[in-house]
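FYI - complex with NAP, inputs then prediction.
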Amino acid sequence: MNDNLKRFSLEGKLAWVTGASYGIGYAIALCYAKAGAKIAFNCRHQEGLDKALAEYAKDGVTDVRGYICDVTDEKQVYDTLSQIEKDFGQTVDILVNNAGIIKRIPMTEMSAADFRQVIDIDLTAAFIVSKAVLPAMIEKRKGKIINICSMMSELGRETVSAYAAAKGGLKMLTRNICSEYGKYNIQCNGLGPGYIATPQTAPLRERQADGSRHPFDSFIVAKTPAERWGTPEDLSGPALFLASDASDFVNGQVLYVDGGILAYIGKQP
Ligand code: NAP
Ligand code: GCO
C-alpha cells in the first residue's frame, strides 16, 4: 500500500461507534472494520445488538463487540467505556457520536419532555461520551471525535424544532471540542448526512395508499442534485477520511455528504 493510502488505514485503532446496531452507525463501523479498526458499538436493545453482531459476522467483521448502553446515562457510559478498554486492552482512538433519534411534532404540540429527550440523546449524549473518552486521547496526544450532524445543523423545517436545535448545537459542540483540545492533536469534526434511507427516515419514504410515492420522498429527490436519497454506504468514505491520519489537519469542520442539497435551490416543480 503506498504512503498516501496508508494514511487512510485504521490498522490497530479502536473505534467506538455509538448507536451502530443498524443504519448509518452500522455502515460507518463496518467501513472502519474493513480499514483495520477494532469495533465497539452500543445501543439500548439486546435484540438489536444480537442482530447487529450476526450482521457484522456475516460481513466478515470478527474484532467487534456490542454493549447495551444508553448514551444519555453517564454511569452506563463510563461503565461501558471501562468494559471496552478492558475487553480490547487499549483506549478508544476514534469516537463516532452517531446515536440519535428524531421526533417529528409541530412545536406548538410538542411537550417539553419530548423536546428534552431529543436534546438529551442527540446533543447532551455527545458531550457525555466525548468527555469520557477525551482524557485518554489527551494522554496519548492523539484522538478523533466525529459527531453525526445533519442538514438540520444548517436548515430548519416544520415539525423538527428539537432535532434542529440539537443538531445545530452539535455543530457548535464540534467546533468547541476542536478549539479546546486541538492542541493535544485531537481532531473533532462533524459529518453531515443529507437524506439517507434508514429506519429513521422510513416514515418519509412510505408508499401512499394508492401506491404513489410519499410527497416528502418526491420533495427530497427534487431538492437533491443527485436526484436520489443517500445510502448509509455513501457516508463510509467521508467517515473513514475523518477517522484517519489523512485528516490530521482538519478540525472543527462539518463535512456534508448530502448529494448537493445544501448547494441547490431545488428543481422547479
Ligand atoms: P436509526 O436508523 O434510527 O438508528 C439509530 C441508532 O441509534 C440505533 O442503533 C439505535 O439503537 C441507537 N440509539 C438511539 N437512541 C440511543 C440511546 N439513547 N443510546 C444508545 N443508542 C441509541 O438512525 P440513522 O438514520 O442511522 O441515524 C444515525 C445518526 O445519523 C443520528 O444521529 C441521526 O440524527 C443522524 N442523521 C440521520 C440522517 C438520515 O437521513 N437517516 C441524516 C442526517 C443525520 P437502539 O434504539 O437499540 O438504542
Ligand atoms: C427529517 C429527516 C431529517 C434527516 C436528516 C437530514 O425529518 O427532516 O429525518 O432530519 O434525518 O437529519 O440531514
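The CA atoms of residues 221 and 227 lie 5 Å apart. The pocket of D-gluconic acid (ligand 2) is lined by residues 102, 104, 150-152, 157, 160, 163, 193-195, 200-201, 204 (CB under 6 Å).
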